[in-house]
Specification:
Blueprint lengths: L6 H5 L4 H14 L5 E2 L11 H12 L12 H15 L8 E4 L2 H12 L5 E5 L6 H7 L3 E5 L11 H7 L4 E7 L11 H11 L6 E5 L24 E6 L12 E4 L2 H14 L5 H12 L6 H18 L15 E2 L10 E2 L2 E2 L3 H12 L1 E2 L1 E2 L9 E4 L4 H15 L1
Parallel strand pairs: 1-12, 3-4, 3-5, 5-6, 6-7
Antiparallel strand pairs: 2-8, 7-8, 9-14, 10-11, 13-14
Family: Belongs to the class-I pyridoxal-phosphate-dependent aminotransferase family.
Organism: Mesonia ostreae
Cofactor: pyridoxal 5'-phosphate
Length: about 400
């Protein structure tokens, strides 16, 4: 019975991306040929050299509980990765391995936030940020951006959002869902604002760092004056096609890392032993080992943008990373067909699922009700057919 459940769970929203994927599966069972552009999951197999490391771990009889914060040699691999790719120096006391980057984010929220603490979320943001903050009894403070600024928060917007209650700033770069990427100059401008507010902790979600089409990836923690107040979150799900392996990690000030280990010890303990051994192989590999996936995503980005630019009512910018497009579709609001009126992006997403038989995700789930998120982690054939069906449904 609903009244037997906690207020906490009753206030919580269901993940929109997972809900749309579930709805699409239901329709497939009913016989509909749904094309899925809703989930952020690479359509590649995990590379063989990573699978070989997992098989070796099984043969080496890795089957026991793992250290709460991760195997020491995995933490050392994380440290090498941060140094090589991000010019960041961490020691083992600053690294925590978790069951996916989502758990890493939840850990950080639970150990840093008190009731009423405010967390600045530039919109659009990854779908779970808002509710993770709420579970930790924090208050999300949404800062809207637009397609005209490539969905990037300006220093002026950041300054205006800060109050005496502000405790944290969370963002992803490259961004899910917009694909935008903060440059070094843009991050430095935000850091200059944060310098005046030393109580604010930054959470930099960099899970898409290698899926980058414009050049060098920059971490907020690279700035000397931000290093001691930044939590860098990453994992192997996206760039290594390891979504189901569930390994994420953080580099953080040691006091935050210790706290995350403490809470993880009560919730889940250490991450899967075989997945951890495989992750060592992934992190120690040169990026060239996965460049074929990145090159493919870049080709698909061009394909889907070319096709969407021919769809009336879709206004697109060119994402700089990740594998999503986030078109502004507000021009279609108010239009009707067969008794169905499109009032917002949520209506449009459901219309496209039912009429075009294409699964997308409403931008409202990411804090921007004017947009849709479409994933191009799908084959070229699926992308072409999906946009053809969308165009037909909107005509």
């Amino acid at each position: 019975m609903q009244e037997q459940l906690s207020d906490r769970i009753n206030r919580l929203e269901t993940s929109a991306t997972l809900a749309m994927a579930a709805k699409a599966r239901e329709l497939k069972v009913e016989g509909k040929n749904i094309i899925g552009l809703s989930l952020g999951e690479p359509d590649f197999n995990t590379p063989d050299f990573i699978k070989d490391a997992a098989i070796q771990a099984i043969n080496d009889n890795y089957n026991s509980y793992t250290p709460v914060d991760g195997y020491v040699d995995l933490k050392e691999a994380v440290i090498r990765k941060f140094k090589r790719d991000n010019r960041l120096s961490y020691d083992k006391s600053q690294v925590v391995v978790s069951t996916g980057a989502k758990q890493a984010l939840a850990n950080v929220a639970m150990v840093c936030l008190n009731p009423g603490d405010e967390v600045i979320l530039p919109c659009p943001y990854w779908v779970s940020y808002n509710d993770i903050v709420k579970i930790a009894e924090g208050v999300p403070v949404e800062v809207p951006t637009t397609i005209e600024t490539d969905f990037k928060m300006t220093p002026q917007q950041l300054e205006a959002a800060i109050t005496p209650k502000t405790k944290m700033l969370w963002y992803s770069s490259p961004c899910n869902p917009s694909g935008m990427l903060y440059s070094k100059e843009e991050l430095r401008a935000l850091a200059d604002v944060l310098k005046k507010h030393p109580q604010i902790i930054v959470v930099s979600d960099e899970i898409y760092e290698h899926i980058n089409f414009v050049g060098d990836h920059v971490s907020m923690a690279e700035f000397e004056d931000m290093y001691d107040r930044t939590v860098t979150v990453n994992g192997v799900s996206k760039a290594f096609a390891m979504t189901g392996w569930r390994i994420g990690y953080i580099g953080a000030p040691s006091y935050i890392a210790r706290a995350c280990t403490k809470i993880q010890g009560q919730f889940t303990s250490g991450a899967n032993c075989i997945a951890q051994r495989a992750t060592i192989a992934a992190l120690d590999a040169p990026v060239s080992k996965i460049s074929f996936m990145i090159d493919t995503f870049k080709e698909r980005r061009k394909l889907i943008l070319d096709l969407l630019n021919e769809v009336p009512g879709f206004k697109c910018n060119a994402p700089q990373g990740a594998f999503y497009v986030f078109p502004d579709v507000s021009e279609l609001f108010g239009k009707s067909y067969n008794g169905t009126t499109i009032n917002d992006a949520t209506d449009l997403s459901m219309y496209l699922l039912e009429v075009a038989e294409v699964a997308t995700v409403t931008g409202a789930a990411f804090g921007d009700p004017n947009c849709l998120r479409l994933s191009y982690a799908a084959s070229e054939t699926e992308i072409k057919q999906a946009i053809k069906q969308i165009k037909a449904a909107l005509s």
